[in-house]
Specification:
Largest sheet: 7 strands, mixed
Strand order of the largest sheet: 4-3-2-1-5-6-7
Structural class: alpha/beta
Distance between the termini: 33 Å
Length: 219
């Protein structure tokens, strides 16, 4: 059972704790490796117009994951995701140290920290464990075999938190993406990480004085 929401701090994963897209890296390095690489090139060309529209990106991600993971044994796939997450956590220059330090500061203050991410659950859990954050809660995407059954993106993150017993307002939320505005909007204090001036201006119009921005680098 999750802690009361007013003691809860929310962190995104990609771009806040990890440089890059963890599941995207898995798809490039494992999902479309070897003989599937030409297929990946064709898909990227076909889906480029879809990816260019932010509201359609989740649909493109579902298509890419289903095609790239088709035919894989479910148990073997889970093992691959776990190994990849553990390895990614030790990759030089990949972990965003200020984000990890901030999580540890919140934990030391007695906060309940939950990482809420679009990354696949097994991969994200292995990654968090590898960087010393085994005690942190996780709400993530789920796959069954090659099929993405829960894509924890955008407003779905808020719905998934509610299903876990955590409802707004939560005390602080950290993200690098405007797709997380529903998540940031549920926080008493919203923190936008490594935002451009345009992103910060848009977020501030919606969040007002609740918003602050930070610049965190990997390494």
């Amino acid at each position: 059972m999750m802690a009361p929401s007013d003691d809860t701090v929310i962190f995104d994963l990609d771009g806040v704790l990890l440089r890059g897209d963890a599941f995207g890296l898995f798809m490039r390095r494992v999902g479309f490796a070897g003989a599937r690489l030409p297929l990946a090139v064709v898909l990227l060309l076909l889906l480029a117009p879809v990816v260019a529209v932010p509201s359609l990106r989740p649909r493109a991600a579902r298509w890419m994951s289903r095609i790239g993971l088709a035919g894989r044994d479910a148990d073997r796939l889970q093992a691959q995701l776990g190994r990849f997450g553990a390895d990614l956590g030790t990759e030089p220059g990949r972990v965003i140290a200020p984000g990890v330090r901030m999580i540890r500061a919140h934990l030391a203050a007695g906060d309940r920290v939950i990482v809420v991410t679009a990354c696949e659950h097994t991969l994200a859990r292995a990654l968090l464990d590898a960087i010393g954050l085994a005690e942190v809660g996780l709400v993530a995407s789920h796959i069954r075999g090659p099929k993405l059954i829960v894509h924890n993106h955008g407003a779905t993150k808020v719905a998934q938190l509610a299903a876990a017993g955590v409802t707004p307002p939560w005390r602080v939320a950290y993200s690098d993406s405007l797709s997380d505005l529903p998540l940031l909007g549920g926080a008493e204090q919203a923190v936008l990480v490594n935002a451009t001036a345009r992103q910060a201006a848009r977020a501030r119009r919606l969040l007002g004085a609740r918003l602050r921005t930070v610049t965190w680098t990997a390494g």
